[in-house]
Amino acid sequence: MAGYWFLCCPIFIYQGISADNAVHLALGTSLACMIVSSTASICAHASQNTVVWPAVGGMAPGVIAGGFLAAQAAAHINSVCIAIFFALLMATVAGQMFLNWRPEPSSEPLTFRGLIAAGIGIGSVSALAAVGGGFLAVTYLGYKNVNIKSAIGTSAAIGLPIAITGTIGYMISGWSITLNNPYTVGFIDVPAFLAIAFTSAIAASYGARCSHNLPDAFLKKIFAAISLLLSIKMLFFLA
């Protein structure tokens, strides 16, 4: 999901949109696309019974609050700062996966207060970087002794409220800025959304099925490699 806005940003710049607005437009469009891909992914994971619904319900309010507020704030943050934040986040994800680092499992069970706090953090980071929050959610749930496949399925379900609230936030924050741009609704580019959302829905469903058939260690290596490539690509974008 994190790669969507890499597809959009160069295209928007090529169309003559300023770099700053292109980044915000790509972020908003990426989150809108995630609504479709997250829905397809949830269906696939739910069919395998790997979604911990009580955890989703506990984290959802925090995710919604954090995602909406971060999306509103992102419109006022320089695009270079957002790009650096994204690159560092993806590099951290890659390092964590390659080194196989994870916090020592907690003896404390999942609590509503803890889920709310985790949701706020995950929603805020995800809206700023236009990612589904999978890395943060999987790490947190692993810390709470949730197995990797259930953590992945649960993080997919959490991605939907992140995508919805982030999309609404970017629509509102960009409404006046892109008012004269055709085919845009706030910081959402409608043609790009339609083109990417259709194909990503198919890919997300296929990817979810693959995740249940591949070894955990192999899944981590794939995730780490993609995260590292995204980080490097963003650094080249900044250069």
State the main characteristics.
single chain; 239 residues; mainly alpha; two-stranded antiparallel ribbon; 9 helices; 2 strands; globular
Please tell me about this protein's structure.
By secondary structure, the chain is mainly alpha-helical. The protein has helices spanning 4-14, 19-47, 53-74, 79-98, 112-129, 134-143, 148-173, 190-213, 216-238; strands at 184-185, 188-189. The protein has a two-stranded antiparallel ribbon. Strand 1 and strand 2 (188-189) form a beta hairpin. Helix 1 (4-14) packs antiparallel against helix 2, helix 2 (19-47) packs antiparallel against helix 7 (148-173) and helix 6 crosses helix 7. The longest helix is centred in the N-terminal third of the chain and has 29 residues, at 19-47.
Main sheet, how many strands, which sense, barrel?
Answer: 2 strands, antiparallel
* Share of residues in helices: over 70%
Oligomer: single chain
Terminal CA distance reads 23 Å
Strand ordering within the main sheet: 1-2
**Structural category:** mainly alpha
Number of strands: 2
Proportion of residues in β-strands: under 5%
Ranges with pLDDT <50 over ≥5 residues? Answer: none
The succession of helices and strands, N to C, reads HHHHHHHEEHH
User: Per the principal axes of the C-alpha atoms, what is the gross shape?
Assistant: globular
Calculate the mean pLDDT score and round it: 77
Indicate the radius of gyration in whole angstroms. 17 Å
Number of helices: 9
